[in-house]
Amino acid sequence: MAALVAVLAAVGVGLTYRLFVTTTLGQHVDELAREGAVHGQDSLWRVAGPVLDVVSESFVVIGISVAMAVALVRRRWVLALQVAVLVGGANLTTQVLKRYVLDRPDLLDGWNGANSLPSGHTTIAASVSVALLLATPRSWRSVVALAGGAYTAATGVSTLVGQWHRPSDVVAAVLVVLAWGALVCAFTPASSLDVAPRRHRLPSGEPRPHAFASPGSSVVGCLLLLGAAVTGAISAAATLRLARADTLGVSPDIGAYATGALAVLAVTALAFGVLLLLRQATARPRD
């Protein structure tokens, strides 16, 4: 299942590029969202600016170090290496795709900039958050998934506020990290499995049946997926209306801007919901 998720996420990156970068209509909707960011930008930037200031090379180093330290304290030696590969691989993939593989054709009037898909800032925020999600103990993963998802979404939306990126750039970045996170889950070694706490063992030493069903994680994961489905449906419907030149009752650029922000929230919730459930499933102790 984890390997399938990784493949689907990679396909999602390709489809996002194909729809919003290589088609005139996709570029038009994406560019409307970028132009819509000027509305209320001065006020929103007071919040968005500090969020983006956090993302830096030192942030990546600190993030990797903390995730590896957590894994090493838990004596998950292979996992410590995996989270480093996750962060490095996701960010390298983003830079290679953006700079050397993907191109942005000039389909609109005038030159509208070089290719900026996927977003580097969003990739950094998401990859560090996912690394922590995979490294932390089972009982903490729900909290880390919620916090990491919120931080990733805040970073992605902040890049829209500052007109640093278009919505498709952020969506693609989250999908890149989802692919790498799912790949790590697919190769969970026996040494990285969770250990049942003593209270979950029978007097004979055998683990209690379903001791690691993790209902709390399942609830949080399903709520994230539900939120992603609802938000994604609203965003998709609004995007279709924009594609038909329907103003949604507001100016097209504001509508596209709001729709793009909703798309970022939807994909981020989807990614962290899926990764939370995958991690809990693949790290569950074998009978």
TrEMBL record:
Record key words, sorted: Membrane, Transmembrane, Transmembrane helix
Residue ranges of domain Phosphatidic acid phosphatase type 2/haloperoxidase in the record? 81-185
Kindly list the residue ranges recorded as spanning the membrane. Answer: 54-73, 78-97, 117-136, 143-164, 170-190, 211-234, 254-278
Q: What is the official name of this protein in its record?
A: PAP2 superfamily protein
Its taxonomic placement starts with: Bacteria, Bacillati, Actinomycetota, Actinomycetes, Micrococcales
